[in-house]
Amino acid sequence: MALWKRREFLKFISLSSLTIGTLSAQHSHTRPNIFIFMSDNHSWNHLGCYGDPVVRTPNIDSIAKQGARFTNAYCAAPSCSPARAGMLTGQDIWRLEEGGNLWGVLPDKYPFFTDLLEEAGYHVGSQGKGWGPGSVEMSGRRVNHGGKSYSSFGQFLDDNTADKPFCYWLSSSDPHRPYQVGSGVKSGMDLSRVEVPPYLVDNEVVRSDICDYYAEIERFDSMVGQVLERLRASGQYTNTLIVICSDNGWQMPRGLANLYDSGTRIPLIVSWAGQIPGGRVVDDFVNLNDFAPTFLELAGLDIPEAMTAAGFTNLLFTENSGRIDPSRNVIYTGRERHALCRQYGAGYPGRAIRTHDYLYITNLTPQRWPAGDPPLYGDVDAHMLHYPCPTKMYLLTHRSDPGVQPLFDLGFAKRPREELYDLNSDPYQMKNVAGQSKYQQVQNRLQTQLESYLRKTGDPRVTGGKILWDTTMYYQPRDFMPAPGQEAIRKLGLQDQYNYFD
Q1: Number of domains in the chain
Q2: Which residues, at least 6 apart from 261, have a Cβ–Cβ distance to it below 8 Å?
Q3: Which of 106, 205, 330, 455 has CB atoms 3.0–4.6 Å from 99's, for a disulfide?
Q4: Is 482 domain-assigned?
């Protein structure tokens, strides 16, 4: 499989006006550096180059002009740790045991692209979260799965005394909550220009909250610009593959920890000066999991058979835009336990299949609360209501208002086992058409296609294997007995503390 992929890579290079001879002359002894800029909880359409009218991201926008911008990029799971685990292993999260959970472990028995690159002579390092949150030590590793940790890119470069090709993963904490309330407006953002998705209340509270989120995206953009200047100064810019992405969707209700686009669809921009044709927009489906085989292909390495993902080098080196590879017409996502926010540590398992026209979701335990047990609804941040979360608080405090109740239910109420959304008429996935006779054939087809893929990739939820995600250890003990903040206690009449293991 790996040799076939390598041949296809070379074939597409030649079709993109680079001859095999040219490729050999330029790269016979030079492998590209790989630089991953990752934001944290950042939805796909909230960058200037994706058309957002408010957020200002000049540095990222300039990279998009130089390379390829992907409109259908997704994470494997709408949760930090499993999304990052899938990226590192090139595997679906249900194949990674405890690695499918937040605040767990990622066992050190899987082939990680970072380790494989390091074994092949790359200088590998990470800054920020890398894989996590979770216990690296209990995963059986000395260093983070993303590579040795560095405090800065400059320190990482200084440590590369052998002048090896490098792989560096810079994982920002922006725009993860908590946000500084009022920071967006203070920076000059115009509330009237904010585009509020219809699953949220459109008022000044929510618009200001979105602007605070934008302020952190702008800080991420500034960091990208500063680090790219350091990369240029190093003389390594023209031989560096630059990847800008997020780990999952934003933290608003119906976002993070949900299998809707608002939880799984991410920005993705890839550039390599002089190699990847610029100014292109690619509509094919790609997954964070696809990074692992792609990076290995570019480094000239074989791809482990365990990897269920596929490299997308063919999308990078063509001059085409739009839909390029007909086989990339579907994405599969899933989730297990996100925050510890249900009695006895239960999660909310689900699986989904997304095509250009439909999103089908199966909720495997519909009797549970999808947003976490009331009254904290901890799978919607702030998960303990312990820091400011204006949009969530507005929905909680106004849930009985006629205009708010339907939106509260979309974000917090229990859901049926099956959900189906017609994306041509319902792009925000608000009207569940599962069970309607008009869509029965589509529903059956997607359900069968999803189950077939889950069986093929060994999902124990389908094959009857051991289910461990509800009972495996959660390495953030403060969440066992959440203590809400004083504002939430006062406004919602909450207790000082809750216990999920009474």
Answers
A1: 1
A2: 44, 249, 354, 359, 428, 429
A3: 106
A4: yes
Q: Is residue 368 part of a domain?
A: yes
The answer to whether residue 20 is domain-embedded is: no
In a domain, 255, yes or no: no
Angle between helix 405-412 and 390-397 (nearest 10): 120
CATH code of 375's domain: 3.30.1120.10
Please give the Cα distance from 11 to 5 (Å, whole number): 10
Domain that holds residue 431: 333-492
Enclosing H/E stretch for 231:
helix 204-233
Give the Cα separation of 387 and 364 in Å (integer): 31
